[in-house]
Design brief:
With 368 residues, this protein is mainly alpha-helical. It has two domains: 141 residues, no CATH class; 219 residues, no CATH class. The chain is 68% helix and 0% strand. It contains 15 helices and no strands. It is elongated, with a radius of gyration of 26 Å. The protein starts with 9 loop residues before the first helix and ends with a helix.
């Protein structure tokens, strides 16, 4: 079976990459590249009967992207002839172009940068093989078939990282919804959920409280996202590439649909990280203790209030507050969906639990 193809070792991939660098992509049909063919099979980019160059070129382009942009990715692209106009260029010309990226002569590039580039591209090839093995394991677990227990554990660790983001994103969306709900309520002599209370109900004050809490969770979201980027390299791995793309987009939109700029995002993230145990009380004090904090908080409160004011009149997609809430809901829903596909693999026969939503919880309190 294709999904049982053994992953080649690093040294074998490096040998093939060195040969490919020397001969060029145009020579793939005429040279023997067993490790790269094996990697293409392991990545699901080729079949046993398909030994054409397209699969290896596709594999190489994906592996080079694991260098995460910048000079190293550009130089590696020249090294292997992946940039337009260099595919059939001789090795000396490709090396010259690659060296130019680092502003060194070709011989210096060969002795210093080239070996590192080839080694790192080889790591990218093996990372692609691992990602495919993870997806195959996910599929087997989803279908309740025997799966590699090591990779099954790796999926648990990966979803732990996703759920560290899920928590602040869910809370951010829930608090923004609660703020909208509070703004729509009428003042009362008692709390809506306790008719016998002596405490008056000020919906504006309550809404602002939820908005402030939402800002705390917004800072949490940015802090956890930075940790995810550092610990996981920003790599999203789910059951298929489309889910990965959609979730990656949702995470970006959670932070995009608001008036807080990147510099202020950084301020919030740093203040939360500096807060004792990252607790809300210390974070709120930081907001109140500086002009930057007060300004950011005021901007955020205006954003939430404007979102409420536009909730009935704005055209679909124009209300940025609602767009942020939708992005939060999308991330939480699709992470849950992908996890529930395999969750009961760890405890067969157990139905997946379903929690209560924030709307349902508030509604139940008011009804009582």
């Amino acid at each position: 079976m294709q999904d049982e193809v053994r992953t080649p070792d690093h040294e074998a991939v490096v040998r093939d990459l060195r040969l490919l660098r020397e001969r060029g992509l145009g020579a793939i049909r005429r040279i023997n590249l067993p490790a790269l063919h094996q990697a293409a099979l392991a990545c699901g980019l080729a079949t046993v009967d398909d030994q054409g160059p397209a699969a290896i070129e596709n594999l190489l382009r994906r592996a080079v992207k694991h260098l995460d942009g910048g000079d190293y990715e550009e130089s590696a692209s020249y090294t292997f002839g992946l940039i337009s106009g260099t595919k059939l260029a001789p090795s000396s010309e490709r090396r010259r172009q690659a060296a130019k990226v680092f502003s060194v002569i070709p011989d210096t590039f060969r002795k210093t940068y080239e070996k590192t580039l080839i080694d790192e591209v080889a790591e990218g090839v093996l990372a692609l093989c691992h990602e495919q093995a993870m997806r195959v394991t996910h599929l087997r677990m989803e279908r309740r078939h025997p799966a590699d227990s090591r990779l099954a554990v790796a999926w648990v660790e990966r979803f732990e990282a996703y759920y560290r983001l899920w928590t602040p994103i869910y809370a951010l969306g829930a608090d923004l919804k609660a703020a909208l709900q509070m703004y729509s309520e009428e003042p009362a002599d008692h709390l809506p959920w306790d008719p016998d209370s002596q405490e008056s109900f000020d919906p504006v004050k309550e809404a602002q409280g939820y908005a402030r809490s939402a800002l705390y969770w917004y800072a949490n979201y940015h802090l956890e996202l930075k940790r995810f980027m550092r610990e996981r390299g920003g790599l999203w791995l789910f059951s298929d590439a489309q889910v990965e793309s959609d979730i990656r987009d949702a995470v970006y939109r959670v932070g995009w649909h608001n008036p807080i700029n990147e510099e202020d995002d950084s301020w919030l993230r740093r203040k939360l990280a500096d807060s004792r145990h990252e607790e809300a009380q210390q974070f709120y004090r930081s907001l109140e203790a500086s002009q930057d904090g007060e300004r950011i908080h005021a901007t955020w409160q205006e954003f939430v209030l404007k979102g409420y004011q536009q909730s009935e009149s704005a055209e679909e997609g124009e209300n940025q507050l609602l767009n942020a809430i939708r992005a939060c809901d999308f991330y939480c829903e699709w992470v849950d969906r992908d996890w529930l596909k395999i969750a009961d693999w760890y405890s067969p026969g157990s139905p997946p639990p379903r929690g209560i939503s924030a709307d349902q919880l508030f509604g139940s309190l008011v009804e009582e």
